[in-house]
Amino acid sequence: MYDIIIIGGGPIGLACGLEAKAAGFSYLILEKGALVHSLYQYPSNMTFFSTSERLEIGDIPFVSNHSRPTRAEAMEYYRRVAQSRGLNIRLFEKVEQVESIIDENAYHVKTAKSTYSAKKIIVATGFYDIPVLMNVVGEDLPKVYHYYKEPHFYYGQKVVVVGASNSAADAALEIFRKGGDVTMVVRGTEISHRVKYWVRPDILNRIQERSIQVFYQSTIHSIQPNTVAINTLDGIQTIENDYVLALTGYQPDFSFLKKIGIHLSADAKLHPTYNVETQESNMKGIYLAGVVCGGMDTHKWFIENSRIHANQILKHIKSTLKAV
């Protein structure tokens, strides 16, 4: 039996692993995909808003060639942290169930490959694996994507980008500059003010000069193989289209949280229940760390402000468990 099993091998899961190892606890990190799987799915050319020192974990320096690190640099950093510190990680092993062992005050953790036992569980599963769907006709067509990787694929294509956040602005600009014909569909009245400060003026200028078309206060009505119908202030407008990038946000795996007994708020925010000082959930011995703590408020927690969760959790675990 492990002292601690950490579900999720992203930056915060790794931070929890570093703290567990430093405290002398036996631990295992289980990750359903590649190491830092969410970062792997980020756009290839992404630049972080945070500076490198704010992405550091375990007091291990993150040296970047830029004032703000790139996705590639971050992946290299976290990979080297995992390797140099010899973290106990099993990749491509999805956790399917967490069941209480009543008599032992512990848990069984079942994966697609095996079953493990642990006295404490840390859930650090992030939020990037499940897109927020538009729920419109045609969303299941093969030309619709909820993730964006790089722009070359869209050269010479008519592309609709849905959304007004960082990912939407980055995708629209990159595709435009690589020869794509870009139209943005924005639910609100403007491009989000949370867009990176060096990107927002760029996207606004491209919209103003009509290099990128935009429909504000609009939503997707339906998607057809060669067209997209848009709900606008002037009624439904249909435009020619080759691809749709529905960058409408992502959400934690709420079904998994509920399955293991975590209470969620009754409103649309779906905030999980946990103690803000210890990060322990309503399930004794199960802790929440990182972005998953925010429910649908996925903009609330980032790597830089949730790194402290690892220290908070291990501080509480040390008060209840004795390390080997």
* Percent range of helical residues: 10-25%
Count every beta strand, where a strand is a DSSP E run of 2 or more residues: 17
Instruction: Report the structural category.
Output: alpha/beta
Radius of gyration: 21 Å
Order of helices and strands: EHEHHEEEEEEEHEHEEEEEEHEHH
Strand content: 15-25%
Instruction: List unreliable stretches of 5+ residues.
Output: none
CATH-derived architecture of the largest domain: 3-Layer(bba) Sandwich
Chain-averaged pLDDT: 95
Here the CATH topology of the largest domain equals FAD/NAD(P)-binding domain
Tell me the major beta sheet.
7 strands, mixed
Total count of helical runs of at least 4 residues? 8
CATH secondary-structure class of the largest domain: Alpha Beta
Tell me the span between the first and last alpha carbons: 12 Å
Shape: elongated
Count of domain modules: 2
CATH superfamily of the largest domain: FAD/NAD(P)-binding domain
Give a description of the structure.
The protein starts with a strand and ends with a helix. 23% of the residues lie in helices and 24% in strands. The chain is built from 8 helices and 17 strands. It folds into 2 domains: 2-130 and 250-320, FAD/NAD(P)-binding domain (3-Layer(bba) Sandwich), CATH 3.50.50; 133-246, 3-Layer(bba) Sandwich (FAD/NAD(P)-binding domain). Helix 5 (200-208) links the parallel strand 10 and strand 11. It is α/β, with parallel strands linked by helices. Helix 1 (11-22) runs parallel beside helix 8 and helix 4 crosses helix 5 (200-208). The model has no long low-confidence stretch (mean pLDDT 95). Strands 1, 2, 3, 4, 5, 6 and 17 form a 7-stranded mixed beta sheet that branches.
